[in-house]
Specification:
9 helices, 8-stranded mixed beta sheet, single chain, 27% strand, alpha/beta
Length: 387
């Protein structure tokens, strides 16, 4: 028999991906009576489909303080819990295909080194010392040794388990159908299993956060974006030792967005996106087919970089949906209804930032002093969301 849904809570978190799990865990650890509801399975949307790279390299330089803290928080959680989610500090390589793009890589490296981080530019020979099978025709690569990966399914479950240890109550298969309001205040949520009254509600449901906000008359600048990935059959351990990605190019996205890594299971996980897939709003509720062009581009890139892996059998593919904002930055903070907060709009980078966002939301709910970086994600940067 499933646990009965509580009638009240201090905080209800809507959405059981990595961000919702991290937020709910932190609220519970900080002494708040917290309930987490998820429409389907915990980690079953884009979080479980993520390649879950935790890193600082070639992201927005303005966000470096947040990224450094978030990566340190993940390392601390792994140590505290005994690393039940395959945390691995493998490092990240970003390949460079053209001499013209060396200047782009150097700008990123200089910016990060000025912040005290240790990225460096490597020759192809130096790259092969780190990643022996990366023998394709690259011109150079940047190297960020501190970047890491986790198993996304296990990470979400570990956050939930640790939250439950301190009182978090979490309910899968419990869809939030709408927000309860009284005047200009949100007072709880209505679900298919009943209502929960709460002093605060946090929307952490990715692209579904916009749908929930509409029930309180708020239009969020969040749209879904299709993300997809491929996985090979199991390969010997350390076939690929690092996270391999593409350096930004001077001309835009010629080499595409690429990420290649090996899971603890031995599967090679990889993708290359040279053109974004148009994603209608209603697509978030469908099971979409992986586009043929994406499969071809991804296999072409893997084979180019790792010639010895050309021809390995593919095992599976999948599509999930990220939440995207106009400026490619999270919405995390208060919305213009008392008691309503948001932590959504990951733009494909939510896994890394999740524990930082947990702290940010908890600080707001408790009325604590803000931390460095909190203001970067304030929804009020969009006029329609200013109080």
């Amino acid at each position: 028999m499933s646990e009965a849904l509580p009638g009240t809570a201090d905080v209800v978190v809507v959405g059981g991906g990595v961000v919702g799990a991290a937020v709910a865990r932190q609220l519970a650890k900080d002494g708040l009576d917290t309930v987490l509801v998820e429409a389907r399975a915990f980690g079953g949307a884009v979080s479980g489909a993520s390649l879950a790279c935790l890193g600082t390299h070639m992201h927005n330089l303005e966000e470096l303080p947040v990224l450094v803290e978030a990566c340190a928080l993940w390392a601390g959680i792994a140590d505290e819990l005994g690393n039940p989610f395959e945390y691995s500090r493998s490092g990240q390589l970003r390949f460079i295909l053209r001499e013209a793009d060396l200047a782009v890589a150097r700008r990123w490296i200089d910016g990060e080194r000025a912040f005290g981080l240790p990225p460096q530019l490597l020759t192809p020979r130096e790259v092969r010392e780190i990643e022996p099978l990366l023998t394709g025709p690259i011109h150079a690569a940047s190297w960020s040794p501190g970047d890491a990966t986790v198993n996304p399914f296990l990470a979400v479950r570990a956050l939930l388990s640790d939250g439950r240890r301190v009182g978090l109550r979490a309910f899968p298969a419990t869809e939030a159908l709408g927000l309860l309001t009284s005047g200009d205040r949100v007072t709880g949520i209505r679900t298919g299993r009943g209502t929960i009254a709460a002093g605060h509600v946090v929307l952490a449901a990715g692209p579904w956060a916009a749908k929930a906000a509409q029930t309180a008359g708020i239009s969020l600048p969040i749209v879904p974006r299709q993300a997809q990935c491929l996985a090979s059959v199991r390969q010997p351990p350390s076939t690929i030792r690092t996270v391999v990605g593409a350096c930004e190019t001077a001309g835009g996205v010629e080499s595409g967005y690429t990420q290649i890594q090996q899971a603890g299971s031995g599967q090679i996980l990889f993708n290359t996106v040279t053109a974004a897939t148009e994603t209608p709003i209603e697509a978030r509720d469908r099971i979409n087919e992986v586009p043929r062009r994406f499969v071809q581009d991804s296999i072409r890139t893997l084979s180019m970089l790792f010639p010895s892996l050309a021809g390995i059998p593919m095992l599976r593919s999948w599509v999930r949906f990220e939440a995207v904002t106009p400026d490619d930055r999270f919405l995390a903070g208060r919305l213009p209804r008392h008691g309503l907060l948001i932590a959504a709009g990951d733009n494909g980078t939510g896994f890394c930032r999740a524990p930082f966002l947990g702290g940010l939301i908890s600080r707001l709910v408790r009325g604590a002093a803000p931390a460095e970086g909190d203001a970067l994600y304030d929804p009020a940067r969009f006029p329609e969301l200013a109080a």
